[in-house]
Amino acid sequence: MADIRNIVILTGAGVSAESGIDTFRDAGGLWEQHRVEDVATPEAFARDPDLVLRFYDMRRAAIQEKQPNPAHEALGRLDREWLGEFLIVTQNVDDLHERGGARRVLHMHGTHLNAWCTACDVRSRWTAPLIDRPPCPGCGERALRPDVVWFGEMPYEMERIYAALRQADLFVSIGTSGAVYPAAGLVRDARDLGVRTLELNLDRSQGSAWFHESRLGPASALVPAWVNEILER
Ligand code: APR
């Protein structure tokens, strides 16, 4: 472990599961409650914007009342104490990494905190329920959508993610099923770059075979233990 200076961490819904936020593909997950095609694609938004806006208003209200769990707090501690390069690339739209104390966080699938104006492209903090069609702070048009990346849309800041991976000595994947690309391909990109790879997940994921090491268990136990290990190495 002594030769680790730069760390890239990828997180998915599993890191927030113990905060009470539904994952997508576990039993009872979000995609069992709602069809992706109805609420998480540009076509769905064009077809029935009210259904999509209500879904994200509901998601946002559910997320807002949740609290960071020990996994978020351990990653916040690592961000504060780590002297090398550090980046949490999260697929999650919740802000629990930030509320757990992390600062170097990149939301590749957007965040529930922002809305995006389809008229003027301005992104703004999302306060009122979007179903009420609040005016865009930029242009005043009532054309706001959630600033989250839907299926078929490009994730944010992929170049910055790949640049961080090229400098990394360690890539750690936490709480993701490895079902959705390009996030799911990052472990292979890391391996191709000679980066050491570690998975912390409740169950085996679709990417488990690509990791040098996989530790299975709840994030609230595995992540604090790993943070202690890496800080005391
Ligand atoms: N601790 C650790 N891992 C957990 C826990 C837990 N308490 N609970 C669940 N997991 C793991 C599951 O084993 C699973 O591998 O978290 C993963 C959750 O997988 P998904 O529900 O597929 O969520 P995610 O991988 O984040 O989905 C990726 O798909 O729908 C899109 O945009 C959405 O960002 C999301 C993307």
Task: Give the ordered list of helices and strands.
Answer: EHHHHHHEHEEEEHEHEEH
Mean pLDDT: 96
**Structural class determined from secondary elements:** alpha/beta
The CATH class of the largest domain is Alpha Beta
What kind of sheet is the major sheet?
6 strands, parallel
Shape: globular
Share of residues in helices? 25-40%
CATH architecture of the largest domain: 3-Layer(aba) Sandwich
CATH T-level topology of the largest domain: Rossmann fold
CATH superfamily of the largest domain: TPP-binding domain
> Distance between the terminal alpha carbons, to the nearest Å?
6 Å
Low-confidence stretches: none
Query: What's the total count of β strands?
Result: 9
Instruction: Provide the gyration radius in Å.
Output: 18 Å
Strand content: 15-25%
What hetero molecules are in the model?
Answer: adenosine-5-diphosphoribose
In DSSP terms, counting alpha (H) and pi (I) runs of 4 or more, how many helices? 10
Q: How many separate domains make up the residues?
A: 2
Biggest sheet, strands in spatial order?
3-2-1-7-8-9
